[in-house]
Fold each of these.
Amino acid sequence: MNPPSETPPAEGRRPHLLLRITLVMAATLLVWEVMAWTGSLLPEGPQAGLRHWMNALTVFVLAVPMVWLARRHLDRRPWSGLLLTGPRRGWAPFLVGAASWLVPGLLGLAVALAPGWVGIVANRPPAETAATMAALVVLVLLFEAVPEELVFRGYLQRNLHTVMPGWLAVLSQAVLFTVFGLALWIPDAGWGVVPERLPLFLGMGVVLGCIRLITRDVWACVGFHLAFQTAAQSLLNGHLFTVEGDRGLLMAAVFLGPFVFGVLVTALLTRGEGSWGGRVPDPA
């Protein structure tokens, strides 16, 4: 009679990591394709309009269960292993992530505004502007911050970190994030969008991956992502505000600063270092 195996039966049936990553990447792209199709059924509307809500709800309703199913049936590991704490405990890392963008971002904005190099003019009455920005916060959470962070800094980076050093897991998920972003942009905008978008997606993936490594919590990445996307969608598309003066200076002061100093702010706020050189276990 053979001795009982020390390896749990579920572990033996676990697909290879490369297959799991491929399946999750394909499912993620499919979710965004479904979103594009459902959104096309509605006419173009204003910012925070019906089509925007449809897109956000479609992505959220499909992406979050997809990651849950992958974690349960592909990884065969508990949900808590993705380093996504519950909402009650998640507020602290969430605020750290948001502050990691807001502190250098707002300082850069003050530097640009104080000498009069840049001006920002509201295009709508104050009450309407406030209501639209509140709606944008919810939409960014549903559409970008939670789904993308759960997939890339949650599922993918967590799994990659079990087989490679932390720094390499950060770079690897950033490359996957860049592939995902370009795959969404190139079909509509053409290959000419690559020089602009590639460094943006890669830089954002690296910064968010570092924040996730330092804090060991995906909610910190959600906070940073939320602050960035809300500011970008408020200031840069011309619906809520008009930028007067040197737009390039605004981009450098407000949006480049958080990507340069955001990880440092995270480290100072948490006094965390992260596991850069070693692999991390993912126990059943």
Amino acid sequence: MAIIVIALNLIFIIKKTNPNTVIGGELLRIKKLKDKGELDNYVLFTNRRLTGNAESEICKTISDYIEVDIASVKIIDINQIELYLKRYPEIMRIADLDPIDGPLIVSPDDLAEVIQAFANQARTLERSITNINIERTTYARKNQLNNMTEAYANELKRRYLKDVNEIESFLSLAENTALRERYELAAEEFCLNIIAKRKDYQTFDHIMNYLSKLLVDREPILRQAKHKRLVNVMLFFMYWSCDIGENEDAKTQ
């Protein structure tokens, strides 16, 4: 029984298969294998997260096109890959993969939910709160501790400081307790991963830009035009509020 496995960076399947697309060309190839009796099952790995609807639609499209039972088509998305690697750590050893040498990777799920909710509620929030007390290292000192350049720090402050109080107001609402917890989970994950993966020579400018691009690339919700700016706003809020990056207390203890 032949099993074909293909790893794709981006899944795009249409009913009328286009041979000029990556997946279109692949479907034509495996259809030929099926017609010659050389294929029985199809497994597709992707580093994208799939919703249940997307998975079932893609599986049905594949099974219909190559004429195999839908039970013989399986999609393994990034969530399942991460689950398998945690459940079977020997895979990392067999593949000679060292997570310590890997890039800074964070999950966008928690922050995406917070940003989406904030975008929906932002217009109804009170903008009059201007003196929310956040215990924090001074901005200038924090920039020194984290090696953020003055030009970059000033640009962040100019663009996003006006949104800080609104976000804090949003996260402080009693009805948003669950969202506050999601924010804190995201901030904790980001902070620990930055500490573990950051290179000594990197400025924090690099970290902020990298995180922003990573989050947008990995989460379709955050790629929406109305959410892209909020990714940078939320990262600045994390930094300003001392939820990510080194702080004075951490240095002096």
Amino acid sequence: MKCVIIDDEAKSRTVLHRLCENYCSNLEVVGLAASVVEGIHLIDEKSPDLVFLDIRMPKQSGFSLLEHYGSECPFAVVFTSAYDEYAFQAFKYMAVDYLQKPINIEELVEAVGKVQKSLYNKSPEELRTGGIGTGAIDKIALTTIEGYIFVRYQDIIRCEAQGNYTAVYLTNGQSLLITKTLKYYEDILIFKGFFRVHKSHLINLHCVRKFIKGKQNLVEMTDGKQIEVSFRRREALLHRLEAIE
């Protein structure tokens, strides 16, 4: 999988390049650019699958680059920024992920995994829209010991890691033990309105009843369960919740 890095700060480009080389074996960095103009030329030349895109840059922002390609954008985008106030706007541009600097290695690897899984299963247009459109399938096959159970995305309230298994909680009060890891389903559900709020919890944003501030930030789901939100994911979660129509 090919990627390019677009960032006006030389140190940030170098650090991200090194992280990709050291921790993302499935990723090939084919070019670096210091501005939107350089980035457009690089993208047109290299045709990357993924673009790591800084937001706040001189003259033009990272959003300008996406506006240049419009609805025909042929690559997936992971935004990188030192500022969390852009997260809401970033997700409106259908970014696969939003990495806040300094970039966390685990979050980088997860973001790359999401892109790779989507490229195997979706067209570029489906990647940007989450597969919503005419004839879109609204069910997921959950793997159990007995076989497969087909469940509508909107019927899943939350998923909780149980070692190498995942507990899936449904709107009808039923719970299922799935023979796949939480990470496996995160890569699929992230494009269907789900968000990983903690290493052990993936939630349906449409099933959030309220956000609770305190020593621990919590979300209360429609089934009454209160789930801890990790500090690093708090701002991105709030922006995603604001974006829900």
